[in-house]
Specification:
Elements lengths: L43 H19 L14 E2 L3 E2 L5 E4 L7 E2 L2 H16 L22 E3 L4 E3 L13 E2 L2 E2 L2 H7 L8 H4 L9 E3 L5 H17 L6 H17 L2 H8 L1 H4 E2 L1 H13 L3 E5 L4 H11 L10 E4 L5 H4 L5 E4 L18 E4 L2 H8 L6 E5 L2 H10 L4 E5 L2 H9 L2 H20 L5 H25 L15 H9 L2 E3 L14 E2 L27 H4 L4
Parallel strand pairs: 3-11, 3-15, 11-12, 12-14, 15-16, 16-17
Antiparallel strand pairs: 1-17, 2-18, 4-10, 5-6, 5-9, 7-8, 13-14
Helix pairs in contact: 1-15, 2-5, 2-6, 5-6, 13-17, 15-16
Length: 541
Amino acid sequence: HGCRPKGTQCPGDTGSPRDPGRARRGAQPSPGHSQPLPAEGADSKTYLWARYHEMKKLVYDLLPPGVCNLLNPAAIYANNEISLGDVEIYGFDYDYTLAQYSNLLHSMIFNTARDILIEQFKYPEGLAKYDYIPGFAIRGLHYDVQKSLLMKIDAFHYVQLGTAYRGLKPVPDEEVIELYGGTQHIPLYQMSDFYGKGPSLKQFMDIFSLPEMTLLSSVIDYFINHGIEFDQVHLYKDISDAIRDVHVKGVMYKWIEKDMEQYILHGDEIYAVLNRLVNHKKKLFLITNSPFSFVDKGMKHMVGKNWRDLFDMVIVQADKPNFFTDRRKPFRKLDDKGSLQWDKINQLEKGKIYKEGNLFDFLRLTGWRGSKVLYFGDHLYSDLADLMLRHGWRTGAIVPELETEIRIINTEQYMHSLTWQQALTGLLERMQMYQDAESKQVLLEWMKERQEIRSLTKNLFNPQFGSIFRTFHNPTYFSRRLVRFSDIYMASISCLLKYDDVNFTFYPRRTPLQHEAPLWMDQLCTGCMKTPFLEEMVHIR
């Protein structure tokens, strides 16, 4: 009450605002909270349910019509303030950055890798009955190799209960806790190194990993159902090798080249983005792990036969992330047909194609350093982490899942569920001081309802694993790294077209620290604040 405007009351206050010292009966407030208590003669159970219904009404009043379309799926979101007016050079990855692929590609990768397991690794032929399951897995999950567990972990290294799977079936929460020594916490040394590969845990960070996670779960499901014993390490390695073969041996490239209309999305928008940047005197470059022939055909499809005229330089088969850290590989030049040349590279020429190389030679030969460079990629580790932390480039993350998640967030069901969940959490925090038997029963009912709401909102995104950005309330491990390794993030490169000014400045929203939280909208529903400016408040995110 000490920070509340003079003369105002929280719902449920029994004392007059002009008589703040009026005595109230009952238990003392918990530390940090001034807690209103039941009116004279009211039992605590009745009082708690009155507060509950009062909060429900307040939540309804807090969500005026139109509040459910606040977020734009095509917007660019800022983690760090960045002015495009300061950016002189734009760099791009190719796969899932310039070239966005249809989900049909995931089925093809799954089926081919499954057949490799059967035909080359001599896995049971019964696996052929398994097909790709769209929407089973999400990006950013961790896999515990020794325990055969695929799971979602939050930014504090805790497993989100209800999101641990062995094969295609969920593992009970009690078993998960037992497996990790009576806790949901995964020790830091087990988690991962800088690139998401720990001694026993693997993090799946790129979009191509969706079919790999589904195949891994399908094979384990088959082995468990048929009582087949297996070595967890060998199984994981075999599946990783089969998936790698699909990429390394060029099988995937051939599918895409054969039917680009079916597999490549938003090609016309990519040309518009690149052309506008060039027209505003920006320099462009491409660094990709894909081979030249594949990139050349894709860019001709999206941009036109003269696509190389837009770029100051193109680097293929770069071997990221080693490209950013290993000084040993020199650049090699390719001719127009993609054949290797043997001359030593002393300069990087506009319109030429280069293979391999390393970032240190790139910086030396171009002089493109620091915050005047903005590089876009989809893989937080392989594309962005080194560039931001070690070299000071500005970075943009391409997160295709963002579009779908924002459309879900904009629904009335999600908005009402989340706001009521926040209100109910506030009630539980403020009313936990009531410890008589009847009050405890009320609080248990509220906790059960809160858990049901949390499960409901999780299932809106993905029934198995929920949102890629959040556990029930904490950021995910993926989300924390997205914030750490990218200045801005968006669903696709084409989002740049939504901003007419190429000198646009992106400002991050000031999100609350916990000690700042009472100043923010989500705290209004706990009943400790009221405001006459609800229409203005809905524009704050």
